[in-house]
Design goal:
With 379 residues, the protein is an alpha/beta fold. The protein contains 13 helices and 11 strands. Strand 8 (218-221), helix 7 (229-243) and strand 9 (248-257) form a beta-alpha-beta unit. The protein has one domain (3-371): Alpha-Beta Barrel (TIM Barrel), CATH 3.20.20. It has helices at 42-55, 82-92, 109-122, 137-140, 152-168, 206-215, 229-243, 261-274, 278-291, 295-300, 306-311, 329-341, 354-371, and strands at 17-21, 59-61, 97-103, 127-132, 173-176, 181-185, 198-202, 218-221, 248-257, 323-327, 346-349. The chain binds flavin mononucleotide. The site of flavin mononucleotide has 16 residues, from loops.
Length: 379
Amino acid sequence: MDASRASNPLFGPNRFKLGVFSANCDGGLTMSLAPERWPCNWDDIAAMSVLADEAGLEFILPVAKWRGYQGRANVYGKSFETLTHGAALGALTKRIAIFSTVHVPLVTPAFAAKAIATIDHVSHGRAGLNIVCGWNQNEFDLHGVKIDPETRYDHGLEWFEIWSRLLRGGPEFDWDGRFFHLKKLHTNPVSIQRPWPAVMSAGFSPKGRDFAARAADVLFLNVTELDQVPAILADVETQMARYDRSISVFTMGHVVCRPTRKEAEDYFHYFAEEMEDPEGQAYYIKNRGATVSDGSRQIARPLLNRFHRATGLHYAGAYPGVYPFVGTPDDIADEMARMSASGLAGCTVAFVDYLKEIPYFLAEVLPRLERLGLRAPDA
Ligand SMILES: Cc1cc2nc3c(=O)[nH]c(=O)nc-3n(C[C@H](O)[C@H](O)[C@H](O)COP(=O)(O)O)c2cc1C
């Protein structure tokens, strides 16, 4: 690792890394009608991010959304744009990595290079880019941009090659590729992190994994039970070997942490089962299935978790494919330890009400993870 990346905790020593996901959108990471669901007010996002920063979590990861999921909850109906969100949080925090999620068909590589370099300077080397190629044509219609399911990752890779070359610095260059024809490319300033800031991508399809193996430092995958991990990691290993690169694999979780297991499980049942939003779910299934080639398979046989298996219920008010961390602080720390032992290098956390719930998680679960040797005590 280049020493200039040492300022980014994504590359720090903790064995199991943690980030807060999706707090820039209302509903957070739910599809729930629960009235207390995250309203995504700026001051709450800022306050919650400062708590995560002070506790030593590794990163904040927002989602890029342009339209809500309709239904009665219309989750994601309100969301903050992620580059400007990143610059603001970079100024308000001291240590945590600040990711911006960019739909590559909507932003030119030169624009994103300048924006990410800006955040990297504001944050003194803590910026990150989460590359998403897009799946929801219905939201892209707002920009008049067509998603091509066949070429979206090829386009993303060319975009990444230009973006990363710009941030590497050096003489001006022209680009004459398959998707981009650009003249006199340069950017100033370049990023503090060298050769460029941390890159994540989230791709479930084979092309998505191939893209991550070529371009990313971290790949996000959906895992809802740990017995799914070995096969997934074996596939990622094969991809990495092909490009002689090494990347970390993270997954995304939803946390319900309470003093007793019963309280936690009752609350999960309440927001994810009793308060589910079937119309929002239907919108997601329809639009996702239209773009993602293996989407119908994934959706017809949803990724099961232990709650589905135990009860036969769907818990559809939790986001599809999210890993449920539901229980006491001991339960959650133990589950994270099992996740780490399975080979995953980190995960994101989300809460129904981030600001209200994160203090208990930080105070109770982090010290347990330290005792389990997954994270160093915070300096
Ligand atoms: C952690 C994570 C963050 C994501 N963020 C976004 C996002 O902000 N906007 C978006 O349109 N898609 C987002 N996605 C969806 C992915 O870009 C991608 O479509 C999904 O993982 C499925 O992969 P596939 O398209 O290769 O099948 C995210 C996925 C994950 C797991």
